[in-house]
Amino acid sequence: MTVGRLLATQLLAALLLGGCVGVETGPTKAETEAAAARVVADATAAQAAAEQSGTIHIGVAGPMSGDLAVFGEQLQRGAEMAVRDINAAGGVLGRTLTLDIADDHCSAREDADNAANDLVAKGVVFVDGHFCSGSSIRGSKIYAPANVLQITPSSSNALLTDTAAQSKITTLLRVVGRDEMQADFAADWLTHVYAGQPIVVVSDNSLYGKGIAARLLAGLKERGVTPVLNASFAQGQTSYGNLVAKLKEIKPSALYVAAYHDDIGRLVWAMRASRVDAEIVGPDSLNTPEFWSYAQGRGNGVRFSNAALAVERPEAAEVVASFRAAGQEPDGYTLNAYAAVQVFAAAATATKGTDAKEIAAYLRQNTVKTVLGDLSWDEKGDLTQAGYIWYVWRDGLAVRE
Hints:
- By secondary structure, the chain is α/β, with parallel strands linked by helices.
- The chain has 14 helices and 14 strands.
- The chain has helices at residues 3-17, 29-52, 69-88, 110-121, 133-143, 158-166, 179-193, 207-222, 241-250, 261-273, 290-294, 317-325, 334-351, 356-363, and strands at 55-62, 96-103, 126-129, 149-152, 172-174, 199-203, 229-232, 254-258, 279-282, 303-307, 368-370, 373-375, 388-394, 397-400.
- The strands form three sheets. It has a seven-stranded mixed sheet with strand order 7-6-8-9-10-13-14. A five-stranded parallel sheet has the order 2-1-3-4-5, sandwiched between helices.
- Strand 6, helix 8 (207-222) and strand 7 form a beta-alpha-beta unit.
């Protein structure tokens, strides 16, 4: 990556994502437009170079290190298997897919920008990612000007596609349901099962957690239910003493935790150690065996919502068998990441090219067969259907209820 390209890319990212601080030091309109033009030109040149070599560069972005690395590994495994299978079948448009990997640390800050900029500089035409919603939002504002298609396998926050629509970004879609879908699902269940009983809602203050909690609270309010406590905690804590003490005082019947699996696991352990016996309910972040490790064996009975596991779908049987034959379990978002590559490949074939805008327009008008079933999208790039069901952790396994 040349110094000029790096500066242009970073300048555009700063302008798009943070704005300029101070009139005197900020770039002029002409400089801004020039930087944007250079980024687009560099991305186009990199994509053209890849095409001349007979390859199509695609990328996968997620937390490849840190506490959430298990999810990055799922995305990478899924994308790698899809690339292998598609290349074995002849590639896309007669060209071989090449996969580049970027670590965003699940950040909504510079790490996400750097990951996106790195992929754009390598000439990718499609990004399978990011995992976290904050990272996906940052990335979308870098990919769109560079005409890079983005399909996230896991980012479910409503702001992702809502802000993209407001910014007239059309090159972003997802193969996972919006948070509202599972929040409304949970609100219905809590209202029915725990009618007249004390309910508590807490979140980890992440974009993911806050989004689900806000929609859940709104859904409960619409149903005439007011939680006895609505609280939050800092993401990545190791002690939840104050919260556990409050819960022990309130004695709720049910506790909904809108957070990632590591925090929920540690909180579950702390609650059970303090003999707080409320039923614990959470979102799809609990769909990982690592939750059980964080809960230190005390996760029995913890419930979470998720779309029907892809490993159970007949459309996924052959791919699931391939993973297991390789000694890998396609858990969590592995098959979502696989499906995202399938969607790109099918749309590129149908449109006879890799232009992100043309592919995105095609997908909004058509259905694509994937390991997740037949997928279709609305104008925002959201799935038109994503049915949720309950899973309950029992002796280290997530069991469908």
